[in-house]
Amino acid sequence: MDVAVEVFALLANPVRVKMILAIRDIEVSANHLADIVDLPIDQTSHELDRLESPGIVSRQRRESGDFYLSTGVHAGALAEAAIFHAEHQQQERIRAGSPTSNSRPN
Fold this sequence. Notes:
Blueprint: H1 2-10, H2 14-22, E1 28-29, H3 30-37, H4 41-52, E2 57-62, E3 65-70, H5 74-96
C-alpha cells in the first residue's frame, strides 16, 4: 500500500501529470518534455527523477540526451481517470446549478 500512496502523491502534481500523459505512448527527450510542460530543463529533470525513482518512467541515455517513456499504462490510466472524474463532477455541478468550486459541503 505504501507504493500506491507514493504514486498517488506523485500524481497530485499537475506538471507530473502532464509529463506522464506526454510520455505514455512515445519516448520523449527531456528537452522536448521541458518545452511541453513549460519548465526550465533543470526543474523538468528534477520532476522526471522523482517519477523515475518508483519506476513510473524509464530513462534511456543517448548521445543526444536523455529520453523518457512511461513504464506501463497504470500511471497514465490513473491520471486519465482522475481528469475524467474531475470533468464529470464539474459537468454535474453545472447541470445542478451548483458552484464549480472543488469545495465540499460540511
